[in-house]
Amino acid sequence: MCENGCHFSGQQVAAISITERVCSALSVAASCIIIVTFLGSRNFRRPINRLVFYATFGNVMANVGTLISESGVDHGANSALCQFQAFMIQWFMPADSLWAFVMACNVYLAMFHRYKTDHLRPLEWKYFLFCYGLPFVPALVLLFIESKSRGRIYGPAVQWCWISLKWDYLQIALFYGPVWLIIGLTFCIYARVGIYIFKQHRRLHKYTYTDTTIDSEMPVFVEADANVSDGGHPSIQHQGPNSDQVHPSLDLPNTPGDAQGLGISGSSPEAVAVRAYCKYALLFFLALLITWVPSSANRVYALSMSNQYLFGLTYASSFVLPLQGFWNTVIYITVSWRVFKLVPAQISRLETRSLPTLLAGRLHRMVWNTPFVNIVKRKLGYT
């Protein structure tokens, strides 16, 4: 299963392989939930859900690599299957941390620069190029590099084909190092937001026993859509960046029990939106830690022990890494649970035979009307 440095028994190798494939299949199935619900109902197309939807494509492509499991290693380092598996893992597996980072950037822009959805949505095609274009460059370059002493960079790497053990320092330099740098930056953004929310809570809490009415300074992250046709309810937007308009006043509750989170009424759109984004932030960061801590610990241990691997850490890595799409789906369902409860009623109004056609048509309209495609159409003279 690996060239050297690990001495796993046949049963251990089989356990790792089965776990990788089962977790990968579970992740692909979970990703399909995001794709189907997002395309099937406008209620799910909130700004942060769109980013999760875009990230899902990377999750599925990474699972294509992890589903191959040890078959790439068995075919040999120079086989097309091994090189393809290594390329897919190097390209798409780090992309999930980049999507978590751009989600944090959206939170920062909305919180501190008063961005609303009209200003955030044009950034999404840039996010798409950033999250998939940035890891694509090293993944492609590594595909063509080899040396006489070490061979090709892509080759057997314990549980699958990836950067081979002979090039182990590149695993840190081009994979784990950048991923943890992005996780650190994401944590810094969320820490900054958390400090701001805490200060707002302290400031607003002083007024909970008064009849004072103050202006809300908290941004609203929900997307306005007064023409929701799938049974949803219109939401409210905050004013845009540098807006000079006065924010709507909120009457603070007279008892501390009515103040939720930021001292804002629990039923107000501001409180609901802020709580939803804070929940997303916490869950995404926890998902990143669950995904990357075991595999990073395994890599650090192997480096310190001259590429001697522990079965427990290797098995844990094979369990958590393929589950990126699954964790994203859990977060997606958790934050969108109220909308999910409307799905059975919506499905009952559709004819099953027309559902694939409906989803295909909506996917075509979404792709055809993206900002990037619109720019291309204008350049080519399409109207």
From TrEMBL:
Residues 16-336 form the G-protein coupled receptors family 2 profile domain. Its main location: membrane. The keyword Ligase does not apply. It is found in: Membrane. Pfam families: Dicty_CAR. Coiled coil: none annotated. GO terms for molecular function: G protein-coupled receptor activity. InterPro entries: GPCR_2-like_7TM. It is a multi-pass membrane protein. This is G-protein coupled receptors family 2 profile 2 domain-containing protein. It comes from Aspergillus glaucus CBS 516.65. The lineage of its organism: Eukaryota, Fungi, Dikarya, Ascomycota, Pezizomycotina.
